[in-house]
Amino acid sequence: MDTTLKPAAVLMSGRLAGTVVAFSIPVVLARVLDQTSFGTYKQLFLIYATLYGIAQLGMAESLFYFLPADPGKAGRHALNSSLVLVAAGAACGAALWAGRERIAAWLGNDALAAGLPWLGLHLALMLASAALEIVLTARKRFAAAAVAYAASDLARTALMLLPVLVFRSLQALLIGAAAFAAARLIAALLLLKREFGDAFRPDRVLLRAQIAYAMPFELYVLVEILQSSLHQYAVSLHVSAAAFAVYSVGCLQVPLVDLVAGSTGNVMMVKMAEDLRDGRRDAALMVWHDTVRKLALVFFPLVGVLLLCARDLILLLFTARYLDSVPIFMVWTAAFLLMILPVDGVLRVHADTRFLLLLGALKLGLVALAVHWFIVRFGLLGGVLVTLLATVAGKTLALARIGRRLGAGPADLLPWSGLASTLACAVGAALPALLVKESLGLSPLPSILASGAVYALAYASLAVVLRAARQRPTGVSVLEAQR
Asked: Does the CA dihedral 80-84-90-93 come out positive or negative?
């Protein structure tokens, strides 16, 4: 394993372990809480996720640049970022406490008012420790960063679920979340102090440089977060907390999706940047083709299995109370097909950040203008449909831009033949799996296992047949060989 992939694998192992553990939180809560309380939980943590991304102000991410570039001043850069994050967290916490009644009224859920102060405390403490894993990664402490990711998610899961299992209330979960964030902050301060010693101190001159670097990136992050979360806020404004619970279950985050796409995209960026630096534009195009092909090999069959098992999966994880989430989940899952196109990475390699910002603004505008009509016309399904439409539009525009950057026309921009054969295998494998699923009529878990096994076997068989067909010599070649 090379020096680039080995650290990535170490980090991925820690993040994967933590993600798998944390995935149990909504699964357990869907069973413990009634639908209205579960919807309130989803609304609260939608607010948290939005503010957590925006309020970092790019300061945590800036450490990926400043710590390797200036190791002698790493401690000062780290504390500067932490102090800004503390201030941002305090401001967010105060705003959520002061605006709790207005936010609850805006989202049409009075129960939010009681939870927002606790959420604000959790957010403030989490922001204050946001730099921990980034510092360890930037200083090549990959194993320590992996442990920090995994241990943090494990502790978060335990301290959020144990109180709600004992007291059966959303308030208990929020208190547990605040307790976890406080413990994480204490651990982060101790680790960072041990990492930097007396060098862990503020520096005003360096702070100005950090802010100047972080602000343009923060603008891009702001647009991306608003664009990706707007459909959830729009649905929340139109429906009750219980209905929002159904919608949020349909928008299920499959743990491996972002992990695989993000890791593969990062490797692509490193290789492509080297090729472009050395003037090898054709090689950069081949790296793009190879990345798209590899992602298709993962996401095409993954989407096939998820669509095939959608009803069983929702029943298994969230019970029959959330069966109305199935159509939403199927559309949401279909959007994973677009993950095979890591267009952001290519544009970032070309330093085309202005176009990325413009693209994000266009997608945000499209969702903002159309989401109300889609929800009125299609109900809960409208939220994911308009998001899918914006994603398709964004990917299409980005591909056109990439074609110009790489000097590739429509016929050469994507590995069309490889994508077509992979898609054919994914679609063809669904037919025997569907027949087995419908004929057996099993309960959810056995049904998922049986149909998934048949799908995998059929997919692998079709892939072998197609590969053999592509490698088979033509009639002319056979005659020439006989001569």
From this structure: negative
Q: What is the pTM of this model?
A: 0.86
Triad 50, 236, 262: Cα angle to 5°: 40
Measured CA angle at 465 (ends 463, 471), to 5 deg: 100
Residue 19 above 70 pLDDT? Answer: yes
Question: What are the DSSP calls for 239-271, one per residue?
Answer: S-HHHHHHHHHHT---HHHHHHHHHHHHHHHHH
Domain residue limits, the chain: 1-221, 251-471
Nearest by Cα to 147 from 18, 35, 32? 18
Length of the chain in terms of residues written: 483
Cα 172 to Cα 179: distance, rounded to the nearest angstrom: 11
Percent of the chain residues topping a pLDDT of 70: 94
Q: Rounded to a whole number, what is the largest CA-CA distance in the chain?
A: 87
Whole-number Å distance between alpha carbons of 84 and 130: 11
Task: Find where tokens 């979960």 sit.
Answer: 173
Quote the mean pLDDT of the chain.
88
